[in-house]
Design goal:
Blueprint: E1 2-5, E2 12-15, E3 18-21, E4 24-27, H1 32-39, E5 48-54, E6 59-65, E7 73-79, E8 81-88, E9 99-105, E10 111-114, E11 118-124, E12 129-135, E13 144-146, H2 168-171, H3 176-181, H4 188-195
Antiparallel strand pairs: 1-2, 2-10, 3-4, 5-12, 6-11, 6-13, 7-10, 7-12, 8-9, 8-11
Length: about 200
């Protein structure tokens, strides 16, 4: 398995070996040894696994979790294809405000690791796209926040070939500047301290 750090401190994309034959293929999108070597600690405690299904054009995010408790994520796309977006929302981070993107799909079986404090979004490029999330905390509605993927200061580039379809929540999400001014964004040092407990 190959690991590559994104242009956001602590976020990684993992590309596994895929074993193919006439029957199909076998792959392990997550290896604890590879994660440990890349990020410096063992697999985080998985408290929830979730799946979302989306049709082509659906855009979800940018979602993040109030810190504390914070939420680490391991994201994989076992069916379909997405452009996955990772946004550094940790105030005080050397990469605060940066974003990066990776295409996740069944063909490559790539996965993304997001440490505590990062925002996550994706745009579905195919119908019946499934995204899998392993999370370090269980979902608590009042802890789940969002900033706008359309925030011009972020400058996220959505795929030109889709007609974006956003939920009401994501359409109404605030800008990063508004979330920062209101004290809703995570603190970098606090996020790092939570990551160190994994």
């Amino acid at each position: 398995m190959q690991a590559r750090e994104l242009n956001i401190q602590g976020a990684y994309v993992f590309t596994p070996d895929i074993h193919r034959d006439a029957r199909g293929f076998f792959v392990s999108p997550l290896l604890d040894s590879a994660l440990t070597e890349a990020v410096g600690h063992s697999m985080f405690p998985v408290r929830q696994m979730s799946l979302s299904q989306s049709r082509r054009g659906v855009v979800r995010g940018v979602h993040y979790t109030r810190t504390p408790p914070g939420n680490g994520k391991f994201v994989h796309c076992p069916a379909g294809r997405v452009v996955d977006y990772i946004v550094d929302l940790r105030v005080g981070s050397p990469t605060f405000g940066n974003w990066d993107s990776v295409v996740l799909d069944r063909e490559t079986c790539r996965s993304i690791y997001l440490p505590v404090g990062l925002g996550h979004a994706f745009a579905a490029l195919r119908d019946d796209t499934v995204v899998s999330y392993m999370l370090t905390v269980e979902y608590v509605p009042e802890n789940e926040l969002a900033v706008s993927i359309l925030d011009p200061e972020l400058g996220i580039e959505l795929p030109a070939e889709i007609e974006p379809q956003l939920s009401e929540r994501d359409t109404a999400a605030e800008s990063v500047a508004a979330a920062k001014a209101a004290g809703r964004l995570p603190d970098y040092a606090e996020c790092r301290a939570i990551d160190a407990t994994f």
